[in-house]
Amino acid sequence: MKNRRVSKFTRRSVISSSAAAAIGAIIPNLWMPNANASSDMEVTLHAAPGQSKFNFDSAEPTTFWRFNGSVPGPEIRVRQGTRLRIIVENGLAEETTVHWHGVRTPNAMDGVPHLTQKPISPDSQFVYDFRAIDAGTYWYHPHQRSFEQVGRGLYGPLIIEEANPIRVDRDVTWMLDDWRLNQSGGIEEDFGNSHDMSHSGRIGNFVTLNGKKPDAFSVRKGERIRLRLINAANARIFGLDFQGHDPLIIALDGQPVTPHSPENNLVVLGPAMRIDLILDMSGNVGDDNGVIDRFYDGLTYQLTNIKYSDVIVRNDRPNWPVQLPDNPLKEPDLKTAKRHEVIFSGGMMGNMVARDMGINVTSPRSMMGMMHSKKIWFINGVAAEGHIMDPMLNLDLNRSHVIAMTNASAWYHPIHLHGHSFRVISRNGEKTKHQEWQDTVLMAPRETVEIAFVADNPGDWMFHCHILEHQASGMMGVIRVA
Ligand code: C2O
Ligand code: CU
Predict the structure, then answer these.
(1) Ligand 1: centre distance to CA 123 (Å)
(2) Is 470 in the pocket of ligand 1 (CB under 6 A)?
(3) What is the mean pLDDT of residues 374-401?
(4) Could you tell me if the CB of 272 is within 6 A of ligand 1?
(5) Measured in angstroms, how far is the CA atom of residue 101 from the centroid of ligand 1?
(6) So what's the pLDDT on residue 361?
(7) Would strands 238-242 and 206-209 be described as parallel, antiparallel, or unpaired?
(8) Atom of ligand 1 nearest to the CA of 440
(9) 472 alpha carbon to ligand 2 midpoint, in Å?
């Protein structure tokens, strides 16, 4: 991958910790043991500001916006088929909603302000009610002013277990985030500034794993771990190198994929994406290996390290099956699929790239004008404003569709469609090896990607870049399925 450019803010050094507290980063979990397919589960999520400390020395208490007093919010963990009733109480001073990222809910439960529901005003609540039809790794976050609400800590994991999960010794969630902090540990208040919007988004200077500066990850020789990675960052893309280990990718965005090793041994996770790994602890007692993030040129750092205790679980690799059972997704028929073209453009250096690619994007204003109006990004020539929008595409219900997307810009974009999972069928004109199901596909600068799916979930669905600053400055549209 080339052109891994970031905005100037990234170049600030990561705040160092002389003595990272020995806190195991554990997410409180709301799991009903013995949950079965016919059970219901009720959860209350209370969104409110609150103070706590990051686990590094100089930190003053930081003001977060949190669900149930923690960052991440509680891990909601249920068995596939469970009916979830989630009561969201708004203790913020502004409106909010909650979106269940990647979960195929009925439209009215999708949590998009104005489009699928009235926003939840301060001191009110909304009850989300849907069935967990697909197993996998998902997450929840507000969809109102996401660039600030998610950026201040409102998010949490949503894990839907298979009826018969594959066998592992441990099932572990790593929810990654990236913060822009000042020297005293406070969150920089410059949310939604034009520089972030027109470049790589709000890249921070402090990366956390389950809300903490990562401590060593302690493992035992021979154990098999299912590691669920979730990228909750506004903008940072991770490219993780698990030194000394060979991770196997078994699911992308919750959906099973043919188990395979990551390309170039790098586990790449754009904002909002999830990857489930099988990680066999094939090292030896006493080993200590880095987990290195190599995504951005010149900004390599160690995320955490894998440290072997003196316990031995087994000496050989287990030969247990790793293939996950399919979810009930309809197979798109490529022969009869209707084709739609989507071009993403805008951002810094966007006109140059589009010109190079021979794409005629009419950018109505100068860059300064775009930045001033916060209309910086365009989908098929339109920069979205607010949340009520005419559909940019109309898809016939229950029919197969191919969306051919072109990134005519100089920046990466993780493109997310609500209400559906889609197969990524080609990149730059070449068929993808795994035809993977995703709900968020990372597009490199100048890349073309084709996705295919059956539009089987009726309603108006958001389609947007998940770099939240890009979303807030126009890179968002509505797809109507009817
Ligand atoms: Cu994770 Cu429209 O969002
Ligand atoms: Cu983007």
Answers:
(1) 24
(2) no
(3) 90
(4) yes
(5) 6
(6) 72
(7) unpaired
(8) 1
(9) 10
Which atom in ligand 1 lies closest to the alpha carbon of residue 464?
2
Residue 183 reports pLDDT greater than 80: yes
Residue with CA nearest ligand 1 atom 3:
101
pTM to 2 decimals?
A: 0.93
Backbone angles phi, psi at 28, to 5 degrees: -60, 140
| Percent of the chain whose pLDDT exceeds 90 | 82
Which is nearest to 137 in space by CA: 176, 87, 101, 164? 101
Task: Report the separation in Å between the CA atom of 440 and the middle of ligand 1, taken as the mean of its atom positions.
Answer: 9
At residue 38, the pLDDT reads 56
What is the torsion angle, in degrees rounded to the nearest 10, for the CA atoms of residue 111, residue 112, residue 117 and residue 123? 70
DSSP state of 81: T
Coarse DSSP helix, strand, coil percentages of the chain, rounded to the nearest 5 percent: 10, 40, 50
pLDDT value of position 419: 98
Which pLDDT score is estimated for 360?
81
Q: How far apart are CA 390 and CA 153, in angstroms?
A: 31
What is the token pair recorded at 370?
Answer: 């775009």
User: Which residue minimizes the CA distance to atom 1 of ligand 1?
Assistant: 101
User: Whats the size of the chain, residue-wise?
Assistant: 482
Residues 6+ apart with CB under 8 A from 452: 332, 334, 337, 400, 401, 402, 403, 422, 423, 425
**Closest ligand to residue 475's CA:** 2
Which of ligand 1's atoms lies nearest the C-alpha of 139? 1
Q: Per residue in 273-332, pLDDT tens?
A: 999 999 999 999 999 999 999 999 999 999 999 999 999 999 999 999 999 999 999 999
Give residues with Cβ within 8 angstroms of 392, minimum separation 6.
Answer: 342, 379, 380, 382, 463, 477, 478, 479
Q: Which residues contact 373 (CB under 8 A, 6 or more apart)?
A: 365
Cβ 418 under 6 angstroms from ligand 1: yes
Return d(Cα 445, Cα 178) in angstroms, integer: 22
CA of 199 relative to ligand 2 center, distance in Å: 9
DSSP E strand stretches across 23-61:
29-31, 40-52
Domains, the chain, in order of start with CATH, read 25-161 (2.60.40.420), 170-312 (2.60.40.420), 338-481 (2.60.40.420)
